[in-house]
Structures are given as C-alpha cells and as structure tokens.
Specification:
Layout: H1 2-7, H2 10-19, H3 22-45, H4 50-70, H5 75-87, H6 95-117, H7 119-123, H8 131-165, H9 172-205, H10 213-234
Helix pairs in contact: 3-4, 3-10, 5-6, 6-8, 8-9, 9-10
Amino acid sequence: MVADAVIYHPTVSHYLKFVATTVGRDKLLRTLQYFSRFYAWYLLRTNGTPAEIAPYEAIKKQFGLARKLLRFGKNVEHFKAAALAADSKASLPDPVLRYATVGRQLGYAGYLTMDAATLADALGVKRWEGAKRAQREAYRFWALGLLCSVVAQMYTLYRLREREAKVDKKEGEGVVESKRIALERSASKLQLLSDLCDLTVPTSALGWIGFDDGIVGLAGTVSSLIGVYNQWKKTA
C-alpha cells in the first residue's frame, strides 16, 4: 500500500530521529522565526497591511519565546565544554584552537546564563527592571563566542592550506589526505558562513552595526538552515 510505503520510508525514520532531538526542533523553529522576521520586514517595505504583517510578527515573537524555553539550562553544557577544552591538550594540541574553543564555549555559556535570567520577565511571570540590561549583556557574550568561533575557523582554513601544500597527490596516501582536507575545509567554510550570519543578530541588537530586520532575518534564516543541515547529517 502507498500509506505503508510512506510510513516505513527511511526518510520518515530519519525525520523522526531529527525532531526527537532538542537541537533539531530548535533549528526548525529558528528557521521559521528568522524567515518571519525577514518576511515581516519585506511586507512592511512593500506597503503590506498590518493584518498581513501581524501573523509573521507573532511567529517571530512566539517562536523566539519557545526557543528561549528550550535552551534554558543549556549554559551548564557550555561551561563543561569550556573546562574540557581547557584541559584537553591531547585532543586540542594547537594553543590557538584550544583558546578559541574555550573562548567560544565561555561566550555561549555567558549568553545562555544571562538569557536564562530574563526568562521569567519574558514569560510575564515576574517583571524585572534589569531584564533589558541582562539581555544586552547576553548579546555581548554571544558576540564574543561567535568572534572566537570565527577566529578558530579562519585559523583552521589557514592550517589546512599549509597541510595541503605538503601533500604529494601522486601517492595513494596523498590522494586520501587531499580528500580528507577537502572535507575539513568544506565543513570549516560552512561553519564560518554560519558564524558570520549569526553575528548580524547581536551586533545589530547592540547597535554596533546598523543592520535592518531584512538583513538580520535573511542572515538568520541562512545560518538556521545550515544548522538544520548539520543536525540532519548527525541524525542520519
């Protein structure tokens, strides 16, 4: 039967694995949130009516709040990752990558800690006058983490070029190494693109760079789709 063919299709099983993860659900919500931010801006710029814009503004707000709930408590994971990276001289022998990883994890941990502090205010459970200030501090930590990640990816690409220059592609081992480098470079470039897109969010919120909602929404959509792609591969 057609129904059985659909239900038992490997893609359906893969999808169920994907949405069973918190990261998978978050990336899907994030994609819709930032696309709605972009599309609401687009409708506003093209003289859309308030009734047309309202659903996308609601999605942007409500999905943002849902994601805030999903990431509550995740700061502990990043504090642990920072400690492990600082102690892992064997797995991260390069000091530049090790310090960049520690900085990235501490930045994300700080962001999630300050973001969690604003949760009660965002839910309307208990109003807090310092919520806006805490959210600004959260954005600063996020920007710090992203900048550390950008440094790590740029340094990784530089090291990969050095490795590639030493490879003898005429030998069998050299061909294998060349393919391995190509895969690592592709992953690093994708992560770099994602980080640069994400940087538009905190830098705009903090007023460091004057990106409008169109650019931030579009960039956020791109980085979210990259996150969906990466998580889809992990759950394969």
